[in-house]
Amino acid sequence: MNYNFLKIEKPEKLEDIDILSGRSLKISSSVEKAVDRILKEVEANGDRAILKFCKKFDRFDAKDINNIKVKSKEIELASKKVKKTFPDLVEALEVSYKNIKEYHNAQFKKEAGSWTIKPGKGKEIGQILLPLERVGVYIPGGRYIYPSSVLMTVVPAMVAGVKEIVICTPPQPDGSLNQILLYLCGRLKIKEVYKIGGAQAIAALTYGTESIKKVDKIAGPGNIYVTTAKKKVFGDVGIDSLAGPSDVAILADDSASPSFIAADMISQAEHDPDSRSILLSSSPDIAKKVIEKIYGHLDILLKEYGARVNMEVILKSLKKNCKIIFIKEKDRLVEICNMIAPEHLEIMVKDAKKVLKKIKNAGAIFIGEYCPVAVGDYIGGTNHVIPTNGNTRFSSPLSVYDFLKRSSVTFYNEDALRKEKKFIEILSEFEGLFAHESSVKIRFKK
Q: What is the C-alpha to C-alpha distance for residues 5 and 188, in angstroms, rounded to an integer?
């Protein structure tokens, strides 16, 4: 096919780069109103509302709330079938699980943990580290299932020591769930799985119903209705993040392979029409060759995979959100990269370690020509639930830390309080909180 939709951009000023603006999460008023109605109705009517919305949105007429919860027999049968029918997939999932668990175990060991210090006679202060009690994981489902997302959300919670992990996922109209998902639930020993999708699942996990106990935190990606619901319930429940379109930035010099870069940009475009693929190159020759390779790889994909590859999505993404930027100075490219604050960053330059030290904002960083984003998506072990929309400026990938909480602990004996009593009195009186002052004084009245 003849393609001609990419060009090399050579911006003179940062404000000329349109990828640096307009990335905030945009929610239409119609979505807002629909989600508000669902949340309020589930909070007020519980199970009855869940059954109503499952029928309306998931097209699953459950009749009874007991049909919403997955039976242990369903998981057992699916596990046996999947092991027999998909042995290669099971092997790949086992390797992925092992690597993800190993990484998050190491992450957990590096956490500061519980500790105390004794800064003076008669007093002790510190913190205790505790896992969350109950976590809800939302898994997009229906026609498609992403086993990697199940592992990425559930394994860190398991490693952190969360006692109760609940999964909500939309079913097929006949009430069935994907067999691979059920296999993973069995493998990960998840005992609570509900056939609920959309904003109604987020509402059920947040407020609870007669049959579903509410959770402390919700993790996992979803569509705009799920994301909007998570945004609205934050405060009543914890959430991991608000997912937007995925993105990748690739830093490359004249040592990089144009073919590899092109393949990685196309793989990013495959996610969604709004996905962003950005090349930041210090070599005009590489930039030019990458464009040529992108066009060539598109034809190769069609020839190799035919209708199985979603070429419509890939082309929409590349035409709308693919940027090829050339600036000779590497430091300037790094500056742009830090302003983009990409979800994924690939570094394909000769002095990769030197460049890495200058990176301030990036979610997941992949170094070298043989480390595409696909490694992190599936098998590397690091987490692929990463902040989008430039939010890596202030947020981090999902980790065991998201499923842990810290409580501060203070002990004072009588002598320690007497020694510092006057300072509490001075501060509380200045702030006009006289009952605070009194609560200290009363302890020393005869």
A: 45
245-378, what's its fold?
Rossmann fold (3.40.50)
β-strand 344-348 against 247-252: which pairing, if any? parallel
In this structure, what are the phi and psi dihedrals at residue 255, rounded to the nearest 5 degrees?
Answer: -90, -10
Number of H helices, E strands in the chain: 16, 14
Task: Give how far Cα 285 sits from Cα of 46, 347, 430, 437, Å.
Answer: 61, 17, 68, 72
Cα dist from 228 to 65, 142, 252, whole Å = 25, 19, 36
In the chain, residues under CATH classification 3.40.50.1980 are 29-239, 245-378
Residue 384 CB: number of other CB atoms within 10 A? 26
The SS3 of residue 117 is strand
Predicted pLDDT of residue 143: 57
Closest by CA position to 363, among listed 377, 352, 350: 377
3-state helix, strand, coil in the chain (%, to 5): 50, 15, 35
Tokens coding 334: 């790094």
Q: What is the mean pLDDT of the chain?
A: 94
DSSP-assigned beta bridge partners for residue 234:
237
Interatomic CA distance for residues 120 and 185, integer angstroms = 50
Q: Which CATH class is domain 29-239?
A: alpha beta
Question: Can you give the pTM of this predicted structure?
Answer: 0.92
Distances (CA, A) of 329 to 212, 265, 340: 57, 22, 17
Q: What is the pLDDT of residues 294-332, one digit of tens each?
A: 999 999 999 999 999 999 999 999 999 999 999 999 999
The rounded distance, in Å, linking the Cα atoms of 121 and 75 is: 57
- The predicted-structure confidence for 37-47, as pLDDT tens digits, reads as follows 999 999 999 99
- CA neighbours closer than 13 Å in the CB half-sphere of residue 430: 6
Average pLDDT over residues 345-360: 96
Torsional sign, CA 79, 82, 85, 86: negative
pLDDT at 144 over 70: no
* Active-site amino acid positions: 343-344
First to last CA, the chain: 93
Q: How far apart are CA 204 and CA 208, in angstroms?
A: 5
Q: Nearest 5°: CA angle at 206, between 204 and 212?
A: 40
Q: How far apart are CA 239 and CA 387, in angstroms?
A: 12
CB 82 within 8 A of CB 183: yes
Q: What does the DSSP assignment read for 344-364? A: EEEEESTTHHHHHTT--S-SE
